[in-house]
Structure formats: structure tokens, C-alpha cells
């Protein structure tokens, strides 16, 4: 048993993190264990990238005039090192969804947006050195809007703890296998401050303006996110497959690493946000607000989980965005010339249902009312459900996502 547990934690600490399943038969788990040592095996240190490869990367960065850092979920434990490197290089920083918050909100080198947006793609294409750390280059981050393949990059270096990942999706000019934090620390030592700083802030400022001019940007959705940010400092936001979550991909900036995650891309598991927010509430300090953003259709998959949240006294806030059905699917059917089927659903009275389960619940139909409701909800020690009718927050049809 100690050896099995040691192998599990070796995966967590020195390889690409992921779930480990340990199965213990009933006739084994009931046996006497007094002879089993309780001394844990030592933690396995994560690997750093090859020194020679890091030296080649350092030389490229020293002569680069337009460097760029591209950070994925594998870089969340290297936030300090990534920011130090970006500041030293004057390099714009582009993040995927799982890397939101690696650079603090408002940092002059943080591009924001998403690699799927045309403006960010242009920034990548014009960079003479792109260093990608801990990112898969997967479609749900890099082609969420179905614009086609990524633009050809001038020179790309990839750092990833999984060697097989370095041979997938985007071909690098330099492939370095190693842990993000260990590798960036080694790279910073090699550079030792001997690098010319580029004018990355100007490139970032131009790209930020270009992002807000894209048809996929929605100012009313941005106002909604701004209320969340100002009302709930340090927020951990958990998104489901619902309209505001889609816009969060390029319009919401997280206050720190591991403070934003969603199910709105990839498999798009409906109902994910409620149990995920409950898990986040258990894991995070009590002073960190936890909010689940879910649609009326998705909520009906896991709505009864609110009973568990009440029983366990988990003070999560649930924002239920109600557009009366599976609107994204409906619009997709119409766009494809298909008669909508099974998407116009009869929803329950969510406020009454939430109250019946023991939650605080109310309907909120404006940003001002939402701000007030959030200020009250954060002081409670039980779940709060706020139902938000879409027509109370958007003045007309959505242009850009549907």
C-alpha cells in the first residue's frame, strides 16, 4: 500500500497531473495493518528542462525584438517565474483559459482575450520568438471560434512536462521537456538579466483595443463581469455551458491562478458548475468568494446538488442565467437549417425550488440589483441562488457567439 500511494503522488508531483484510481479489495482493506510502515515515501522532485536546450532558448530571447510568452494550465504553479521573465523581456503574455490569473489583472504586459481571437492571433504571428509553457495548443483554446489553423509562427519554443505533448498540435522549433517552474527558474538563471527589454506594453495596448473592436466582444457582458469583480474581490468563478461563460473566455480576467475554470469548451458537460463550485468551496479559504455561473438548461442536470450544499453549509453563490431553453443549441440548429427540436424547455420556478431545498434565493433583473444581492449573499453561511433573466442584462440579440 505505501508503494502504491507513493506511485500516485509521484504522478502528482513530477509528471502531468491527473487522477489516479486505487482499487482496494474488501478482503484486503479489512486485514490487520499493524505491520505496515506509516513513514511516507519521499516526494519526487519535478524535472527541469535540458540545460543545453535552455541555453539555446536564452540566446534566442537575448536577440529577440518582439518576444511573446504563451502560458497554459501547466504554468499555474510558475506564476512568479513567468511574471519575472515577462518583466525582464518586456514580453506580452497571452494565456489560455486554464492560465487565467497567472499574471495579475491589469498588468501592462497581460494581453487578455484569447488565442482564438483574430487580434491575438495577429500578435502571435508578428512575434519573432514565442515561448509556450504548459499549453496543449488544443482547439478549445486556439480555435474556439473556428477560424482555422493557428497562424504560422516565426520561431516557437515549447516547454511541457509531458514529452508526448511536445509532438502534438503545434510543431515547435525547440522542444523542452520539464516542469514549468523548474524550467523557468533555470532559464532565468541562464539569462541573468542579460537581455534587452522590448516595448511589449505598446504592443499589448494596441492588441487590447483591437480585441474590444472585434464582433465577438460584448460591452454589456463586460459590465456584468465588472460587477462580479468589484462586488466579490478575489473571486473564484466556476462556469458552466451558458452564454456569459462563453464570453468569459476572452472578456473575464481572473484575480489569480486557479480562480477560474469552466466546462464550456471540450466536452461541455452540462451541470458541471454546481458540484465543481462546491468542491472549490471546500478547497479554498473561507475569505475567497466562490460563484457558480450556470444556465437554466444546465442547472436542471444537477440542481438537487444544492441540497448537499445546504446540508454541508457551503456558502456558494449560484448565478442562474435564464434564457428559457438551450439557446446555443437552438441557434445552431437554425443556422444549419434544422427545425429546432427539444431545445425549448419548460423550466421550473428556480427561486421557489431553491428555497424549498433550504437556500436563499431571489430573482435579480438589473446590474444594480445584482450588485446589492451579491453584497448580501457573500455574508451568508448557506448557498444563495440568484436567477438572472437574460433580457434584464442584454438589451438585444447577442451578436458574436450565437
Could you describe the 3D structure shown?
- By secondary structure, this protein is α/β, with parallel strands linked by helices.
- The protein is 38% helix and 13% strand.
- The chain is built from 16 helices and eleven strands.
- The chain has a six-stranded parallel beta sheet, with helices on both faces. A five-stranded parallel beta sheet has the order 2-1-3-4-5, with helices on one face.
- Helix 16 (367-377) links the parallel strand 10 and strand 11 (384-389).
- Helix 3 (51-63) crosses helix 7, helix 4 (79-89) packs parallel to helix 7 (180-191) and helix 9 (219-231) runs parallel beside helix 16.
- The longest helix is centred in the first third of the chain and has 13 residues, at 2-14.
- The mean pLDDT is 92.
Task: List descriptors.
alpha/beta; Rossmann fold; 5-stranded parallel β-sheet
For the record, give the distance between the C-alpha atoms at the N and C termini, rounded to a whole number: 52 Å
Radius of gyration from the alpha-carbon trace, in angstroms? 23 Å
CATH top level assignment of the largest domain = Alpha Beta
Helix percentage range? 25-40%
- Nearest-integer average pLDDT: 92
Q: What does the secondary structure layout of this molecule look like, with pairings?
A:
Blueprint lengths: L1 H13 L11 H4 L21 H13 L3 E5 L7 H11 L3 E3 L22 H9 L2 E5 L5 H4 L13 E5 L13 E4 L2 H12 L8 H13 L6 H13 L4 E4 L3 H9 L8 E3 L10 H11 L6 E6 H7 L2 H7 L5 E6 L4 H9 L14 H7 L3 E4 L3 H11 L6 E6 L13
Helix pairs in contact: 3-7, 4-7, 5-8, 9-16
Characterize this entry briefly.
The protein is an alpha/beta fold. It is 38% helix and 13% strand.
